[in-house]
Amino acid sequence: MEMQINDSDLWEKASAGDREAFGELFDRHAGAVYNFCFRRTGDWSAAEDLLSIVFLEAWRLRETALPPGKVLPWIYGVATNVIRNRRRAERRYAAALRRIPAPREQEDFAEGVNTQVDSERAMRMVLASLRKLSKSEQDVFVLCGWCDLSYEDAALALDIPVGTVRSRLSRARKHLRDIGLSARHVPSTPALEGGCE
Amino acid sequence: MIDDFSLPQPRELTPERQRRRRAHLMREIAPKMARSRLTTLRIPIAMSAGAATLVIAAAAGALGHSAPKLATASLSDSERVTLSHLSAAGTPVDLPTGDVRAERLRAAGYTNITQIGARGDMRFFRIDSASGRACFGVGAQGAEWPFAAIVCRTTAPYFPSAEVPLLDQSTVESTARTGPLHFANLEGIAADGVAAVQGIDPAGNVSVSAPVDNNVYYVPSAEMPANVISIQATDSVGRIIASLPR
Q1: Which residues contact B182 (CB under 8 A, 6 or more apart)?
Q2: Is B30 in CB contact (< 8 Å) with chain A?
Q3: Is ipTM > 0.95 here?
Q4: pTM
Q5: How far apart are CA A163 and CA A170, in angstroms?
Q6: Taking CB atoms and an 8 Å limit, are A101 and B2 in contact across chains?
């Protein structure tokens, strides 16, 4: 039986310059990072480019030592920083993004433009509500509330103490209650389960 | 009420899109060819002391080259005078109007541009200043802005002179593909009295020779042997006037 190598071992190999190991991490987590980026931008197309940027940035930072089992939370942290500094990140990787070949197939059209537009509209409505929080509260809320990260993983992702995660999340919940956000502000699609993956 | 937040369902990248993104990622993180910084620069080389010579001195070190000496001691006075001139008349060139680089050149006092000659796909220029000191440029044929590189010697000995009979603007390169540091082409401006510029291989043999015509010499990359590690300027009877690296 083939044993699947864990993320931490792949990261260790990638840190030593093993591109294939890094490619395997991409295969495993591209979907999660793609959806995370969508939930921070409300734009599937931008999320796809941000996915590339996040992994290019992760490769740039590949010598970062990570605790066991924390690769994905750390990548969420990289994604959070990339999105927060999106313009700077896009400038840094502009040349790389220009080298992405155009898709040969028009799968989006086959898949249904309406579905995409609807989900983007819905996400933007949610994000409009979320922007009433401070940026640091948004970061914690998205990671813990939408991506099911533990307080410890969110702390690692954001490079802040666990206690700060707890207090920011608590403030975020309170602020959202204070401003009276409720289901009427967001579409009535079922609540997401399973985090960002 | 936080729990009321409902989100659009996650979706997956299509296999084709994910494959394309992965392939792109792999290409972007692949080790780049080990190109020397020198390959991206046009290296001005002058056969004399000064900053330009320091550049090639570093190259000489990388080449492990045993530097020959300048042979000017054997030159007669008349030959030294000859080597102090450029007789190519050339044709005046107007710089593009409205170009900030042209404005900067004019502001620095460099107002008269002369195309000394053209060889292959390259053009060679003299840029005269009000002070009487000239700079020299080289650039591709047909380019809107004529200069790919401009060389100005601001300290003595100046070009052209017996001490500096050559203003070499060849490209020196070292890549994973091409191996050790070597001349990728030969191009530059030579003083009157220089008849040829020769490329020398590691064994000391002449590997390629570029005749000097109207003060310009040129061997394009496509015609350049890959083993030239030094160059030398010769006069009409084949005497070596100077060599580089020194």
Answers
A1: B63, B172, B173, B174, B226, B227, B228, B229
A2: yes
A3: no
A4: 0.51
A5: 11
A6: no
